[in-house]
Task: structure prediction
Amino acid sequence: MKKSIYFLVFWAVFFSGCAKALLSDTPKNEPEAIFETFWQQINKNYSGKDVRPVNWDSLYTLYRPQITPQTTDNQLITTLSTMLSHYKDGHLGFIAKNQFYTSNKRNANFTTDYLGKSGVEKVLKKTLKTHKNIFSYEKNADNIGYIHISTFDGRLPQVDFEFFNTIIEELRQTKGIIIDIRSNQGGDEAYARIVAERFATSYAVYKYTRTKIGASKNDYSEYLPSDLGPTNNWQYINPVVVLTDQLVFSTGINFLMMMQVQRNVTTLGTTTGDGVNGGVLYELPNGWSIQMPFKLSYLPDKTVVEGKGIKPKIEAFISEEQRKNGQDAILEKALELLK
Amino acid sequence: MKKILHILLFLSNGFASAWCQSVVETVPSKPVHSLSLGVGLSHTGLKNETVSSLIFSSMGVPMHFTYRRESAVSRHYVQLQFLSQTLESPFKFMMEDVGGHLSYGYLRRIKSSTKMNVFLGGECQVQGAGRRMTNNVNVPKLFTLFNSLHLAGMMDYSIGKHRFEGQLNVAFLGYNLRAGNNLLDAFVPDIFDALGRKGKFETLPNYLNMAWRLSYIPFISTRHIQWRMDYWGNFYRLNKGQYLGSLHNQLTTSLTYKF
Result:
C-alpha cells in the first residue's frame, strides 16, 4: 500500500517539475530579450498604436541596434523611455526599479486654464465652500451655481463623491450651474457617474468602447455601448455649462462624455487631453512592467476619442495677459451664457 | 451550438461503444454506483502572455465530487472539481485564480483478462477559470471557458484485492471562450455579452487539452465505504493570439460511498 502511494506522489512531483519544459519558451532575463518582449507587447496589445501617428516598426529599426548583451539597466530604461515618448500618451508607460516612466509628461507640456480657487472666487465674488479637496462650490449673486470637481480618484471612498447629492440639493433652485472639471485628470468612472446621473433626464448612450483582441489594426471587439440614466428623486434640468481644458484626462473625459449627451448641457473651454482608457501592466522577463491601454473609446457618433480628445461645443481661451492678471475668462464666458 | 456538441459527443461515444461491442461479449453484472468526496494538494504552473512573459505558479487545495457507475463492461462518471488559489510570478505579480471542471465520461471495455481491463470512450468537459490580477493597475480580470470533447482511454489492473486505474484523455475539439488577446474590465458590465460571442471552435495543434489520471483503490472490507487516492494531471495550451498554457498536477484522497 505504501509503495502505491509513493508511486502516485512520485508522478505528481515529477510532472509538477515539467512546467517550464511544457509551457511556451520564457524569454531570458537579458537586455535584448527584454527589448524584444517590450516591443512585441506594445505592437500586439497597445490600442493607442492604432490611432496615434507613430510608426512603431521604424522605432524598432532605429533603437534595436542600440541594445546589446552589455546594455546596462539604466541605458535600457533610457532607450525604452525614449521610444515610448513618441506616443505622448499619459496612460502608456513602464515601471522599472520602482519608478514609473510615462510616455507623456503632460504636466510639463500642458498648462491648465483653471486658475485655482482664488481665480474663481475673484469672478464669482464669493468664497467657495469645499468638500475634501474634491468639490469647491457656491452660487453667485445672480443665482448661478458653480461646482469645481478636482478629481474622481478611485482611491478615495465613494461616500466623498456621494456628497455631490448634498451640493446639488443646495444648488437646486439656481437658474443654471457651471460644472468646472478643468485640470481633472480622472480616476474611477463609477464616481463620475454619481455626479453625471443627477443631470440625466433619460437613458442615453454616452460612449462606445472597443477592446483590442488581436495584433492587427482591425482586431477589436464589437462596439460596446455605455449608457447613463437618472438616479435619485429629482434631476437638475436647468442649463448647465461644463468647463474643460487640455488637462482634463482619462475619467475626466469620460465624465465629459456623460455630460455632453444631456440636452441641457453646453461644453466650454479648450480641447481635452487625448487619453481615455487606463492601462494594465504586462510583466517583462526581468520583473519590470509595461502599462498600456487596450481599449478605444468613441463618441456616440463613433468618432474615436483616443488620440484626439474632445473639442467643446464653444471654444474659449485664456490669453497670457489674462492669465498673468488671474482673470478667468472662460468662467466669465460661462456666466454670460447662463445669465 | 448545444445540439452540435451533443451530436459530436454522441458520435464519439457511440463510435467507441459500437467498436467495443464488436470486440467484447457483454457480461451481465450488477453495476456499482459510488459517490466520492475528495480533497488534496495541487501544483499549478500557468503562463498567460496577456499579462506576463513569465510562468505563474502556486500550490493549492483542490476538491472534487464524483459520481461513478461501474459495471463489468462500462464506466460512467460525472465529476466536479474546484480549486481556488493565488498564483504568483517570480517577481511577485499576483493572480487570484478560481476555477473548476465539470466532466462527464463514458467508456466501454474493449479488452479484459483476469487482472486487467482496458476501456475506450469519450468525455465531455466544461472547464472554466476566472482570474484577477490583484496587484496590477485597475485590477484586470481574465476568464477562460473551454467546452471540450475528449477521447478517453482507461486501464484498470488488480494486484490481489487492490486495484489501480490509469486514464488518459485528449481533447479533439473545443469551443473556447477567452477574453481574446486581452482583459476584462470591471467598469463595463455587459462585456461578457460582447466577448462571449467570440467563442471559437478549436482543435489540435492550436488547442491542446489533455488530462491523465493514476488511481489507487485499496481493498477495504466494509460494504459501503471505501477510500481511494488519485493523482490527476491536466495540461492545456492555446497557441493562437496570446499564448495561454497551464500545467496542473494534484494528489487527492477521497472518501467513497458505494451503493
